[in-house]
Amino acid sequence: MAPAPCPACGGALRPWRTVPTSDASLPGVFELLRCASCGSAVTAGAPPTFEDAHDGGSYATRRPRGSGLAAPLLHAFDRQRLRLLARHGARTGRLLDAGAGRGRFVAAAAAAGWDAGGMEPAARGVEAARDVYGVQLQRAGIEDAAVDPGSVDAITLWHVLEHVEDPPATLRTLRDWLRPGGLVLIGVPNVRSLQARIGGDRWFHLDVPRHRTHFSPEGLARAAEAAGLEVVAFHGVLLEHNPFGMWQSVVNRLSGTTSYLYYLLKRSAPLRLRPLAITLASLPLLPGLAALELAAGARGRGGTMVLVARRPR
Ligand SMILES: [Zn+2]
């Protein structure tokens, strides 16, 4: 049987590298294949079940450690996402956050004047959105959601596309929801980033086996175009995931552990002295690595990227 083609561009996939899981709740070593045409990569093998991958472990919706302290930072992340929309002319109307998690961004968009909603397949996300933010999410995956065609002014697809099995099908669905001229922001990790190169098989944003497609900018643009979307812009200087991802990738590389602090904060790693000591000793590296990451992002090599695309008028 011929191997499946690249989900981003349809090119040929070849063996690339093996990668250890970062999450003790999903143990194993996973093979990555890479596309000879667009440079995107794919996690080989069957995906984990939805319950294992997204309703437990670090994705369980218990309150993360330190989340009260993080609130101002989370507001800043949401404001940057809203500014990206505004910069490309989307300031008002109906907004959907597809794969809305706990609904935090839907609440932020509503507070900024959008008629905001979203859908989320995980029951615990929908419950947390209602209880924490007073947001009513539609409990559905993108393929099953009830949205009228051509009814939406803006969609945010934030760290969702790397999780789906058929990215072009997901993008075609979003395109159909948009009114002509409507915008979609697609945020995903960038496999061509500087931090991906530094982190190697312990790059923070690999997150195998949850992440199925590891997009290059070229692959993401081709997938969007194949779905009938028009590429408007790329952004790579992003506060939300990038400086932390660079620092964590360096710590992973130095310590031989994978994202220990992240999973400790998400309450899915036990308290252990050695990785904690290495992590704490690496904290002074954070400002310098954040500056390095922002410089890389300005050159299109940020750890995550946002593609802004439009349904043609
Ligand atoms: Zn490809």
Automatic annotation (TrEMBL):
Keywords of this entry: Transferase
GO molecular function, a single term: transferase activity
InterPro entries found in the cross-reference section: SAM-dependent_MTases_sf
UniProt entry tagged with the keyword Lipid metabolism: no
Listed CDD domains: AdoMet_MTases
UniProt keyword Ion transport present: no
Pfam families linked: Methyltransf_23
The protein's name: Unannotated protein
Organism of this sequence: freshwater metagenome
